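Collaborator request, handled under Task 6.
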Amino acid sequence: MTLSKKKKKRTYDKTTTLAHFSFSREYEPLIKDLYAKACQGSKYLWSEIQSPESLRNNDELRKEFFSAANRGMMSAQEKIISILENENEIEPQKMLLFRGVIDAIAWQILGKQLAFARRFFKSTVQPSLYNSNFKSVVSVANSILNESPNSVVLISDLTSFIQVGDLLLCKPDEGITIAEVKDGAINKKICNFVESYLQSPCPRSLVNFIRTEGEQTAKQLQRVIRQADRMAHISSILNDGHGIDPDTNQPVNIPEPFYPVQNWDLKLNRLLQESESKGWAIDTVDNCLFLGAYSKDEMLATGHVAFNLWFDAMGGTPECPRARLIDCMLDPLALPIFSRNIHDNYKFDLLFGRKQVCIGICVELFLDELKKNGFSIRLATNKECGHVENSGVKPYKHKGKAIFIGNGKTETILMDGIFLRIIFHGQTPISIAKTIFDSQDDLK
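Structure tokens returned to the collaborator:
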């Protein structure tokens, strides 16, 4: 099951865990404007689209739709760049919101596919936009847009998770590509050498280049080659669905068939609406995913305590995954609130403190539901767990033990990534488990 970055565990306290958090409301008008540009540039055409098939079969409408959407995305990025260029320092909250808007654009380009997004993420901190080659990248992006105004040219450093290449390009009828911007005399010299070397590999020329240019240039050369390998890997995954990860040397396969996954966003919408009248609303999904929505001042202040007490009474333990929905703005691989299928008003209520959603997954009940749906569950032996961990993978441990899940054909170890999908991508627990095994069976 898919992986996510291992997070530092916090001590559970029912009075502080999941406590209410929100962004400053002074940013709300700006973020609403950026959201409309980034996610609703084609809104004036929505009434003309009866179904996805009607859009696909109407060349003129499809062209105008994507052109309008892409121009909206680029106008949002342009406005953010203008603000960054005119302010000496950006408040951390404001920068998180900016990244959330740009992430929403990136997720649209990638079709909200976490399997693709993970290829771009290397678990490092995004560079400061004031200490990188940001201006050069912006200049190149503008040049590309001048030549191809209906394209999306996304600046990687503005996102939370794209850490391969400087630009993510999406041109009409050409698909997705990645571009690196050469900046500085040494980098240009290195990139020119790498291009020449890849066309005609010569060990002697490589040795001579390193001897001539010195140790620092040699280290930079290694970084450029690693980046080139990663870009080639991503391109292979995006175009063919398979490749070799240059960082782990492990094969990566993303199945071609589309697997629909059930989503709990409609239930979330209903809970948020219910909470407006009485201040709170709770429900479960697949008997193991617990949701609590809170509105009104008194419940915003204490709703997390009520949720923790309820969740604990239903079998939740301190080790069980818990999160606030707004935490998606802090996790690079989570869908930002802008990308969730909930009412626009609720998105901004959640961001700016008028609503709160608490989420918990009871692992014991999750395993019980898997058994009811025909899956086998067994504890991993110490030897099996050690073998998995030695490969660089950190399995999720329940009561100190790693867990294998099987469907009679395939067996896989439980990873944190499935909880990321459930909590921050809105996928229902049993549906995503079935989808993971279906895709693995098809690959075999």
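The cover message to the collaborator said: "The chain has three domains: 26-183+232-253, 265-364, 366-443. The chain has 16 helices and 13 strands. Please let us know whether this matches your experimental observations."
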